[in-house]
Amino acid sequence: SNKIEDENLTSIREILKKETPDMIIHLGDCVRDVYELRREFPEHTIEYVKGNCDIVQEPEEKILLIEGKRVLICHGHTYQVKSGYLNIEYGAKEKQADAVLFGHTHQAFYNHHNGLVMLNPGSIGFSVLNPASYGWLIIDGDDIKTEVKFLEKDI
Prior knowledge:
The protein has about 160 residues and is an alpha/beta fold.
């Protein structure tokens, strides 16, 4: 394993000490982290898709049914999210999704627009450009809320 993956896993372990999500959703790139998390945290439900940097036989997108809501999860590269979010919005609408979760840009973003909830949690890894972050999707009856939380870097 390499240093980046180790750092990512360390960050996720820290989060799971403090937070108790009903489900962990990994949006691709470093999918190997998921295999490790499943081994370490068998009590957690973990869903995931592969990213453009993952050379594995895994799906690029999935629709999850969570609390009666349709949640499209994908890495985002197949919808060219680095050029804007219109493609992914249309794609999610076409699949009758209530929410879409994606990554790829490593920049946190969330929006409620035209009845669609969009969330990019950013990247759990620290980079020069973006602070490390993770997202919450909270489904409460008919209400879908999003939140992005940033990790503190101990320097």
